[in-house]
Structure formats: structure tokens, C-alpha cells
Amino acid sequence: QPPPPSQQPQHQLFGHDPAVEIPEEGFLLGCVFAIADYPEQMSDKQLLATWKRIIQTHGGAVDPTFSSRCTHLLCESQVSGMYAQAIRERKRCVTAHWLNMVLKKKKLVPPHRALHFPVAFPPGGKPCSQHIISVTGFVDSDRDDLKLMAYLAGAKYTGYLCRGNTVLICKEPTGLKYEKAKEWRIPCVNAQWLGDILLGNFEALRQVHYGRYTAFNLQEPFAPTPHLVFNLLDAWRVPLKVSAELLMGVRLPPKPKVSDVTAQPSSKRARIEDIPPPTKKLTPELTPFVLFTGFEPVQVQQ
């Protein structure tokens, strides 16, 4: 089956009420978050405190438990009592990946990539545990997203392609990896295949040769398949209201210091020449030791 035409009438989705002007720094005004799944998954408990601080810095609030006052549930999975309650009460269920995207855009934007939605299996569930995935044609943040999607699905990800790979995710049907995959009879699919599995279409595991997964050059390769997220988008069909009192009393906490903002990867990488030379020598136990492999001795020296 070819993918259905995207001309279907799209239900309009909203962040805030478009009639109300929200100050840029307070783009999370009116958002009250509860958090599920993540605390149990996190090895670094400080990270949760950082998320809370960043949400509050931009006008949002974080409640210790889920209640009717919450507007958003930050969760990794659709399999929990808290998620079921949130969906029943038409709350917005989103992932930390969505929060990252919103922090970058400084705007309350509805979720629009598969990774912005909680997965359709319990945390640590691995529908793709049999797969060794490689990727071609995707770069930068798109490539990072595919790595994360593979990890969440329980697949192994390799930067190279070899005969052991079970599937190649392609942006377009070109390039050396694509040619080799064809030669070695490794199925080539689009990014939608992995997105569909994360969102609960486990049939896709057997449908690597279906037309909908072998159509390339998609305009939005990471967009979720509409019927898989229909109920998740329900809460976004109603704009989020911000009371006049909240807007009037907008006294946002001071901006976090640059070192605090870890939920948001920096868009600018420091160039080597911008970094000041070190001023003090590290003690031996704090000094990093780097081992090289596969380089010529001259390259190691450089």
C-alpha cells in the first residue's frame, strides 16, 4: 500500500491560546508538569532537579504527583497508570525529547516527531531486540534522533554497514551503503518504519518490504503516522489558556547560569581556538589518559 495522501484535513493543533501574547522567556507559562517513568530510569538523580529548574525558569511548574491541575505528563511510555489517567483527563503526554525541542524553539509547539510521543511498550521493553540497524543519508540531529529511536526500540545501532546488519534506514535510495545493502539483501526502509514500531505498530517488524516503508524522499520522514497518535494529539486540539493573573504576575526566576542548562544541547560548538589555554595543571588522578587505536603513529602525535 502506498502511504495515504497527506492532503487529509488536519485537525488544528495549538500550544498556547493564539489570541494571548506570551512573553518569550515565559514560553512554559500555564504548563504544570507531572513526571512519570523517568525518575526510575535515571541513574543521575541530579538530572531531574535540572529539568525542574529549567521548566520553572521559563514560567512552568512541576508537581510532585499527577493531579487535575497538571496540564502535561512528561513520560517515556504509554504503559502506566499515570499515563492512562492523563489520557482520560485529556492531558498532554510528551517526552523529554519534546521538552528539549521546545527549549530550543522557545515556544510551546505541539509534538510533531515520533520521538516527542511516549512509546507504546513499557520502559525497557525491546520490540527490536533482534535488529542491528544502520543509517544512511541522515546527518546531525536527524542521525542522533535515529540512534535514540533505535536505542529506545531495543535495537543495536552501528555507524558502519556489514553483512550482520538486519536493516538499513535510508533517507533516499542512493549511496554506497544503500548499494551494498541491496547486494547483501539487507532490507532498506524509511525512518517511518522505526517511528511506527515505537508508537505501537509492531506489525511493521514483519513489513520491511511494504510500500509504505520503502517510499523514500519523504518530506517529513520523522512525522508520526496520524492514526497512531490520534488520541495523544487530542489534548493539543484545545489551546492552553493562561490566566490574566499569571500573565500579570510574570516574575520569572533568574535565568540559570550557562552551566545549568543541560537539557538543551548547545547549538554552537566552541571552536578549539576559542577555548582559553588551561591555567592550572590537573593532579595525576584527575588527568585523562587517552588510548588510540587504528591510527598511524604520526596521526597520534598530531
Low-confidence stretches: 5-9, 264-268
CATH domain class name of one domain: Alpha Beta
Q: What string, H for helix and E for strand, traces the elements in order?
A: EHHEEHEHEHEEHEHHHH
How many helices? The count is 10
CATH topology of one domain: Rossmann fold
Keywords: DNA damage, Nucleus
GO cellular component, one term: nucleus
Protein name: PAX-interacting protein 1
InterPro entries: BRCT_dom, BRCT_dom_sf, DDR_Transcriptional_Reg
Question: Which features would summarize this protein structure in a list?
Answer:
Rossmann fold; 302 residues; 10 helices; alpha/beta; four-stranded parallel sheet
Please characterize this protein's 3D structure.
This protein is of the alpha/beta class and 302 residues long. Among the domains are: 32-111 and 229-248, Rossmann fold (3-Layer(aba) Sandwich), CATH 3.40.50.10190; 132-223, 3-Layer(aba) Sandwich (Rossmann fold), CATH 3.40.50. The chain has 10 helices and 8 strands. The chain has helices at residues 38-41, 45-57, 81-88, 96-105, 140-152, 176-183, 191-198, 226-233, 244-248, 297-301; strands at residues 32-35, 61-62, 72-74, 92-94, 132-136, 156-157, 167-170, 188-189. Helix 5 links the parallel strand 5 (132-136) and strand 6. Mean pLDDT is 87; it is low at 5-9 and 264-268.
